[in-house]
Amino acid sequence: MPDVNGLSRRPVYMDHQATTPLDPRVLEAMLPYFTECFGNAASIDHEYGAEAGHAVAVAREQVSRIIGAAPDEIIFTSGATEANNLAILGAAEQYVDRGNHIITCVTEHKAVLDTCQYLERKGWQVTYVPVDHFGMVDPDVVRQAITPKTVLISIMTANNEIGTIAPVAEIGRLAHEHDVLFHTDATQAVGHIPVDVEDMSIDLLSLSAHKVYGPKGVGALYVRKRRPRVRLAEQQHGGGHERGMRSGTLNVPGIVGLGKALEIAGNEMEGEGQRLQVLRDRLWQGLQAELHDIELNGHPTQRLPHNLNVAIPGVESRALVVQLKHDVAISTGSACTTAKVEPSHVILSLGYGEERAHYAVRLSLGRGNSKDDVDLIRARLGVASRYLRRITLA
Ligand SMILES: *Cc1c(COP(=O)(O)O)cnc(C)c1O
Questions:
Q1: Is residue 16 within 6 Å of ligand 1 at its C-beta?
Q2: pLDDT tens per residue across span 12-48
Q3: Is-catalytic flag, 116?
Q4: Does ligand 1 have an atom closer than 6 angstroms to the CB of 111?
Q5: Atom of ligand 1 nearest to the CA of 216
Q6: How far is the centre of ligand 1, averaged over its atoms, from the C-alpha of 354 (Å)?
Q7: What are the pLDDT digits (tens) for 230-264?
Q8: CA gap 300, 198 in Å, rounded
Q9: Distance (Å, rounded) from C-alpha 236 to C-alpha 247?
C-alpha cells in the first residue's frame, strides 16, 4: 500500500468478507492473458485460441480440485451473484415439471433471497427456514419443509456476516433422500474451510474469486454431472458456451486468476485458517476485556476462522465505523447493497430484536493482518465505543 510521505498511513483493512486484495501471485498469473495471450478460448483452430483454451482448462482443473469435483462440472460466471441466479432460476425453469417449491434460509445472501422473491412473483412457492440465536439452521426443520413439490433446497455453506457454518452435509443427505436438488452458496467457504461436493451431497455450488484473493467479476457454478446428472436452463443466450448453460466469451484473465487463487488457497488454507483463528480469538478476548457488555453474533465454534461479528450495546455501528474510518476499515455487516441504511436481515433473524442489528459490527481478518493490527483495532474500538456512548448519553 502506498505510504504517502510516511504521514498518511492507510487504515488497517479488516473487511475481507466484503472483498479481498488480489494476491500478487494471482496478478502475475493473470498478466500475460491481458497482453500476448489475448486469444478467444473458443477459437480452437489457431495458436492464440488454443493457448487461451489451455489456460481455461488448467483453471477448470484448479477450481474443481478444491471442491472435489470434476473439471467438466465447472461453469464459469461473472461471480457468485450470477452463479446463484443461474443455479436457482436455471433449476426452477429446467425442473418445473417436478414442482414449484423451493426451500431456502432467512440468512442467505441477497443474491439468493432476491432471486427466490422473483420466483415467488412468478408463482413459485418459497419456504424461508428460520435460524436459531447463533444463525444455525436445523436440518430437521429443512426436512419438515420438504413437500412432494419441492424442486430445490438452497442453503449457504457459511454466512457472510456472522460466519456461522451450516450443517451442509446433513442437509445434502436429506435432500438426496427426498430426490430434491441441493444448491449451496459457498462463496465465503471455498478456499477458507474444506468443502467437498461428494461428502456433502452438493448438486450446485456457487463461488467467487474476489473473496479468496482473486479478481472481482469472476466466479463459478459447480453443476453435478453424475448421480444425479443436473441440467440447468440457460439464463443467458448466445453461442452455447459452458455446456450450453452460460453463453458468452470467457473472461480468460479472470478465470486464470480464479484458478490460481483457489490453487493457492488449497495449499495454504489449513495453516492460514489456524493463524487467523488465533488472531480472531485474540481480538475477541481483547474486545471483551475492553468492553464488558460486548456480545458475539453468530455461533461460538461453528464459524469461519476469520470472522468476528459483535454487538456493542449503546454504540450505533454506523457511527462507530465512520468514527474509526481513518484507522481501520470494518463494516456494519454485508457491504452496502443499496444507498439506504437498513439493519442487517441476518442479525434481525437471530431473534434478539432490532436494537442488536444497529449495534453489530463485522471484523473479518485476512492474509494481510498481523497481531499488531489486532491490538490496534482492539484499542481503537474500545476508545471509540466509550466516546460514542458518552456523547450519546450527553
Ligand atoms: C460476496 C458474496 C456473493 C456475491 O458474490 P459476487 O461475486 O460479488 O457477485 C454471494 N454470496 C455470498 C455469500 C457472498 O459473500
A1: no
A2: 999 999 999 999 999 999 999 999 999 999 998 999 9
A3: no
A4: yes
A5: 7
A6: 25
A7: 999 999 999 899 999 999 999 999 999 999 999 99
A8: 27
A9: 6
